[in-house]
Design a protein that fits this description.
By secondary structure, the chain is mostly helical. It has two domains: 94 residues, no CATH class; 209 residues, no CATH class. It has 18 helices and no strands. Helix 7 packs antiparallel against helix 8 and helix 12 packs parallel to helix 15. It starts with a helix and ends with a helix.
């Protein structure tokens, strides 16, 4: 190679790749958002056409109502799910377990309860992460009550459920879910902290050592965070889509075939036992937020009281039996019983309160 040419090449200014990449991401994002919005806006007429023209069902029959509900809700919920999971996947790229522990460690307990509950909303942890998270938090010096505020909030105040509730019922119901979930997480964590039950944590947990902090996610560029969003869609939607379809199928059956009067009698405001019964039914169930929301929608449509349905949903998400089994590895039975009792008590209060005022 000519030395002069090589020298001239070496003195050329570096190519600025950031601006074209940003424009490309913005253009692609706007195009995909437009496609998403068009598809979402066409769901109702397409569902109506499929039910009564393509399938040839008679109007105002139970089967037709159930089929139209199913055909409309499946793509609607999946479209909402893809959108929110992608956005949350980008947000979650800023959080690692180590960073979350670092934020919560050393905080005053009352402040820590609030902060832990808020962090639980945006961090990617669920009941399957309960044991490693519990160990990491305790060994990092996070108080026991603060740890429970996080462990309650993370599955219960689910960001996917929050967005789906907003899309299906509006901002008032979504805000109600967010506020009551945070109230339970903060109140239950604070109560457990006041009871001083550290001795009911298995001894080996305190002897465990945490690994070195790994805050590498701070250095990710935007392209890597977008890739994290795409990966979250592949991972989460790939794992929950079947639960979504099954949940909507159950909801369609309730919507089409369950008489309104019967559902109102079982889960309505007039039955004082409806709230504790809904909690008892919800605890042994195992479902995620995406799968339970369509059932919630169908129950409300059939006349069930909002407080009762909210209590049912929170018990399914926040007090699942599998989570209790997992937590037994790190907690003694008495602390698990206190945890279940305090959270169930908060859910009951929420159910009765909103049945009374709404």
């Amino acid at each position: 190679m000519n030395p002069t040419a090589a020298a001239s090449k070496s003195t050329l200014p570096p190519i600025k790749r950031g601006i074209p990449a940003a424009i490309q991401y913005a253009g692609t994002g706007l195009a995909l958002a437009a496609v998403w919005w068009i598809a979402y806006s066409l769901l109702a007429p397409v569902a109506h056409w499929l039910t009564y023209r393509a399938f040839g069902l008679k109007a105002d029959t139970r089967l037709a109502n159930a089929v139209e509900f199913f055909v409309f809700e499946v793509p609607k919920v999946l479209l909402l799910l893809v959108l929110v999971v992608f956005a949350v996947g980008i947000v979650r790229s800023y959080f690692t377990p180590e960073r979350t522990r670092a934020i919560l460690a050393g905080k005053r307990e009352s402040v820590g309860n609030v902060l832990a509950a808020l962090l639980g909303v945006v961090t990617p942890f669920c009941s399957c992460s309960a044991v490693p998270l519990f160990i990491g938090f305790v060994t990092a010096g996070v108080p026991l009550g603060v740890t429970f505020s996080f462990l309650i909030s993370a599955p219960m105040v689910n960001e996917i459920a929050l967005v789906l509730l907003f899309g299906l019922f509006g901002w008032k119901v979504a805000a109600l879910y967010l506020g009551t979930g945070l109230f339970i997480a903060i109140g239950a964590g604070w109560t457990i902290g006041r009871l001083k039950m550290e001795r009911h944590v298995e001894a080996w947990v305190y002897a465990a050592k945490t690994g070195p902090n790994s805050l590498g996610d701070e250095r990710l560029d935007f392209a890597a965070r977008v890739a994290a969003g795409r990966e979250a869609v592949r991972d989460i939607v790939g794992r929950v889509w079947l639960y979504v379809v099954l949940g909507i199928a159950v909801g369609a059956g309730i919507h089409g075939f369950v008489p309104t009067n019967a559902m109102a009698a079982i889960m309505g405001k007039g039955a004082w036992w409806s709230v504790p019964l809904s909690v008892l039914i919800g605890v042994p169930m195992y479902s995620n937020a995406a799968g339970i929301i369509p059932i919630v929608q169908a129950l409300l449509g059939k006349g069930a009281a909002l407080g009762t349905v909210l209590a049912f949903m929170m018990s399914v998400i926040g007090l699942s039996l599998p989570e209790m089994i997992i937590l037994r590895k790190v907690l003694k039975p008495r602390l698990i019983a206190v945890f279940v009792g305090v959270v169930a008590g908060g859910i009951l209060i929420v159910g009765y309160l909103f049945n009374a005022i709404l």
